[in-house]
Amino acid sequence: MKFGDCSAELEDSMTKRDLLVVLKAFTEEATKDLIMPVRMQKEDKEEPKPRAADVYIMRLHKSKDSEKSAPHIIHSILTGRDAQEQGDYPQASTLVRSVFAVYHDDEQEGSLMLLDLMERMRIALLKQIVLDERFMLDFYEGIDTIIYPDNIWPYYAGEMITQWRIPAIIREVNA
Question: 15-40+48-166: what fold?
Fold first, then answer.
């Protein structure tokens, strides 16, 4: 189904979930060469190798592991909206919150690393606003970003809010 094709049926589709899966793959591709340090944990036998950010959808596997899993990005659905103006096609949208977390011993480098990761994602989204021919970044709503001012050394975090147009559900009318 192409974006904007209102006649296509979605039968049992999990559209918002599909968006998160597509966004995860897009994020992994966009950030794969941004290699960042990983903090050594008590249970580690050797120093962990720097790596690209892991990408999760909705939540981490275990919330208590948030520091252990840095660097990471979590994409989650915040809200959704379905509407139809009289005489118009139905429209659907959803708000996605993306949380970014990195680790670095140096406060300045850690803050800059977080900025680099968030900018990499922002620029990639602005260059390609349609994902999987079904999901369109609502550029009119803009992209909101915030770097948390109260980051706690050696972890740094921020978030990005994006609005997405998603395929609408077409109502079935019984004749």
Answer: STM4215-like (3.30.2000)
